[in-house]
Write a structure and sequence with these properties.
There is one protein chain. With 96 residues, the protein is an all-alpha fold. It has one domain. It is built from four helices and no strands. Helix 2 packs antiparallel against helix 3. The longest helix has 33 residues. Keywords: Membrane, Transmembrane, Transmembrane helix. This is NADH dehydrogenase subunit 6.
Length: 96
């Protein structure tokens, strides 16, 4: 019971940190699956510790992948690619 509360608290903290709504659902689903697996497995202290570590790692991976996709979206939204900006800087220095 305590582990489930800990997992939910960790999940809430992670969800608060991420401001993009579609990704909240992914993390909530991951944590629900993790909580169900805890319910299925025989609960011993070692199992609980292992499961908590796995859940934290899954959440870290989820956050990293979400961060990368958000970064990619930001880069896509920039009209000029870094290469074009660099070429523009080069040509402006050549002119002056």
């Amino acid at each position: 019971m305590i582990t489930i509360v800990v997992i939910i608290i960790i999940s809430i903290i992670i969800i608060i940190k991420i401001n993009y709504w579609p990704y909240h659902i992914i993390i909530i689903c991951i944590n629900i699956v993790a909580i169900i697996t805890i319910g299925i497995t025989t609960i011993t202290i070692i199992n609980i510790i292992i499961i908590i570590i796995i859940i934290i790692l899954i959440n870290i991976v989820a956050i990293i992948t979400i961060g990368i996709t958000m970064l990619m979206e930001e880069l896509d939204s920039i009209r000029y690619s870094p290469r074009r900006i660099w070429q523009a800087c080069q040509s402006s220095t050549e002119l002056s």
